[in-house]
Amino acid sequence: MSDHVASRGLYVAIFLALMVLTAMTVAVTYIDMGNANLFVAMGIAVTKATLVVLFFMHVFWSDRLIKVTVVTSLVFLVILFAFTLNDYLGRGALGVAGR
Amino acid sequence: MPNGHAAAHHEALQHHFDSLQQQKDASTFGMWVFLVTEVLFFGGLFMAYILYRTWYPDVWLAASHHLDVTLGAFNTAVLILSSLTMALAVHAAQTGNKNGTALFLVLTMVLGVVFLGVKVVEYSDKFTHHLVPGPTFQFDAPYQRTAQIFFSIYFAMTGMHALHMVIGEGIMLYLLVGALKGRFSAAYYTPVEIGGLYWHFVDIIWIFLFPLLYLVGHH
Predict the structure, then answer these.
(1) How many helices (H) and strands (E) does chain A have?
(2) Are residues A6 and A36 both part of a single domain?
(3) Could you report the predicted ipTM of this complex, rounded to two decimals?
(4) Could you give the CA distance from residue B20 to residue A1 in angstroms, rounded to a whole number?
(5) Nearest to B80 among A6, A18, A88 (CB)
(6) With A89 labelled, which of B82, B101, B124, B139 sits at a CA distance of 20 to 30 A?
(7) Do the Cβ atoms of A5 and B76 come within 8 Å?
């Protein structure tokens, strides 16, 4: 249930993990990995966001209804990104009028 | 609740709910549904970012280097710390610690003001260096026109984020007044809980904005 009371120590541990990940995301920009830089940065950001959602926002202890709602937002975000990119990036590949 | 009628006497319980637990579950679910619409609202801005970065990768590299990584990283740390104080404010409310709730809400508000203050410094720096899109915009060739796209997206995304921060400060003020009036207890702290959800959501948006705007390519 969402009225679970987590320990203050856990919140501080999550905070420290978020600070370490922030330092990491700045540090890796000094290493040239080409296009991989973006994916490493996004991987770190997704990890940080997951920690915030699960523990600061209590989703880890929440009802299944809340968990499904959170995942639903991501499903619609993926639909937005995937269908839009499919159109914009795919237009040049097809010799269709109006591109 | 073993006895629904006993719970019905709590002053915060509205008549159309059976119990405080049901009322809290409904409020929390409502806040999450709102946050889903917020994800898609910011999703549109991120979609614009992805498209233009795909079309103008060189512009992104050149323009991003005009943002101050130190200030951006400092603000990221400030917001993460404010999320900790927000989580501790909710914890204090859950455990019936009224002074703790007020203290951590004040700390959260102060950190929010620090974030917005740094943002003001950054924005005014963009004005002095002619990096605001429009007739006064100046940028090194060959990106003197296309770099405006990056800065348009920079101002749109960080501006919408800052607006959410300002609204968050208003929510924190409302919660602080409630905490000082002793409106919250271990039995009823739903406003602090869902106000916290909003604050953490705004933090998450910045967690993505920082690497996408300040840390393009390598340094």
Answers:
(1) 3, 0
(2) yes
(3) 0.92
(4) 13
(5) A18
(6) B139
(7) no
